[in-house]
Amino acid sequence: MHKKEVLKKFLHFINQEKTLRNQENSHYDWPVNARSNQLPPKGHWRVWLILAGRGFGKTRTGAETLRQWVREGVCRRLALVAATETEARSVMVEGESGLLAVHPPAERPRYESSKRQLFWENGAIATCFSAEAYEQLRGPQFDGAWVDELAKFRDSEKVWDQLMFGLRIGKNPRVIVTTTPKSSQFLKKLMKDPDVILTKGSTFENAKNLAKPFLNYIRQHYEKSFLGRQELYADFVESKEGALWTPTLLEQARSSFQNVSLNRIVIAIDPAVSHKAGSDETGIIAAGVTAEGIGVVLEDLSLKGPAHLWMQKAIECYHRLKGDRLVAEVNMGGDLIEQLLRTHDETISYKAVHATRGKRTRAEPIAALYERGRVWHASRFPKLEDQLLSYVPGTTSQSPDRLDALVWALTDLMLTPPAQAKIWGA
Fold first, then answer.
1. Is 231 part of any domain?
2. Does some domain include residue 4?
3. Alpha-carbon gap, residue 391 to 398, rounded angstroms
4. Quick check: 155 and 91 in contact, CB under 8 A?
5. Looking at beta carbons, which pairs linking 417-426 to residues 24 or more positions away fall under 8 Å?
6. What is the pLDDT of residue 426?
7. Is the same domain home to 47 and 195?
8. 87: domain range?
9. Quick one: DSSP state of residue 339?
């Protein structure tokens, strides 16, 4: 073989080896591979709570965060807490995105399963704990911890309390929590804790690392379901006993939707009387009705802000959707609502509505339309759905603004005889 050909093949081999090494090294370069919401928050914090859907990359985020703490020397005694001891080992330690997998071979800790511990060359030690045996957390002390799938724990608050008592050494002891949400009073309380940094994320943020058949299947079968809201989008989903709407009714409304022409479109507004920090939102719901008399909820544009903002939003929607009417409740605003709308746009068709009957009396006929399958939802409306599921007549003092706007829109479209419509600008 000619010397030049030998040299060419040798150089090609060297380049291949170099490429493979670079690819291998890049796999362990977490700051390069991670999305921004997978990197630890800056500043001083005690708890980082990651509430995210399946496949978001929660496990790798937890493992990489501990790897960083150990490498930087900020943590030397760590607790790994999972629902069971088996899950601590199979997911947090030996899993595809667990602690052993995220370390390059030269840095990889030694795992001794009999001791439930990992040992790093720099002296750092991590110990696995089961939430089922949370009393084991009594006694040991830590400067860092990783809690995985907290929402699964049967006694989550008791586990948490024992861990917090043990998180007492080092300059800044801290914990990362990675979990998909479930309805849990403790988890909700934790989210409101001022010492907690909350990160939320969905399955689809990590789409490039997930199998396309998986993504296609879950979009088709789960994306519009309440299970999908919880497992894919990390939303809390719960309904209250006595609520007029149920998850089954709302799933039926979404699954029944068909993209058909609409005879009329209405944008309904339930205005807030102020826009202070504790003020209510202004409910803005766009809805239409088909030739067969099916009501279709099109958009939820509700917001908290001054009058000029919600008026601009409602009028923009009216023109964009080629609406037939803009409806606003005027119990608190009276003629001022109409005057302000006239200032923004003189061309709109407008109707003022007055809440002369109780909220329950107005809402029940609309809930009955859902029960008869006469209302469709064109998309997911998480905040509107949460209000519908949590509204129990006579038990709440807070105004469900999105619900009110929905009721006004569907009442105008489906329950109000045309002769009763007092319209300005029609």
1. no
2. no
3. 10
4. no
5. 421/351, 422/351, 422/352, 423/325, 423/349, 423/350, 423/351, 424/338, 424/349, 424/350, 424/351, 424/352, 425/346, 425/347, 425/348, 425/349, 425/350, 426/325, 426/349
6. 39
7. yes
8. 30-209
9. H
| pLDDT tens by residue, 180-232 | 988 778 988 999 899 999 999 999 999 998 999 999 998 888 877 777 878 88
| Order of strands, sheet of 375-377, starting from the edge strand that comes earlier in the sequence | 375-377, 295-300, 283-289, 264-270, 325-329, 350-353, 423-424
For residue 88, the one-letter residue type is A
SS3 235: coil
Q: E strands, 247-294, where?
A: 264-270, 283-289
Note the helical H segments in 49-177: 58-72, 85-87, 99-102, 156-166
Q: 302: how many CB neighbours lie within 10 A of its CB?
A: 25
- Give CA–CA dist 352/423, Å, rounded: 8
How far apart are the two ends of the chain, measured CA to CA in Å? 90
* Residue whose structure tokens are 């991590």: 126
Where residue 346 sits, what CATH number does that domain have? Answer: 3.30.420.240
CA angle 169, 173, 177 (to 5 degrees): 135
- Same domain flag for 86 and 148: yes
Residue 332: which pLDDT band, with cuts at 50, 70 and 90? low
Residue 393: count of CB within 10 angstroms of its CB: 15
Local structure of 263: helix, strand or coil: coil
C-alpha 115: how far from its chain's center?
Answer: 37
Choose among 407, 400, 384: nearest CA to 281: 400
**Is there a contact between 202 and 56 (Cβ–Cβ < 8 Å)?**
yes
Distance CA 172, CA 179 (A): 23
Token readout for 176 is 């990362």
Instruction: Name the domain count of the chain.
Output: 2
Q: Are strands 283-289 and 350-353 parallel, antiparallel or unpaired?
A: unpaired
In a 13 Å sphere around the CA of 220, the CA atoms on its Cβ side amount to 6
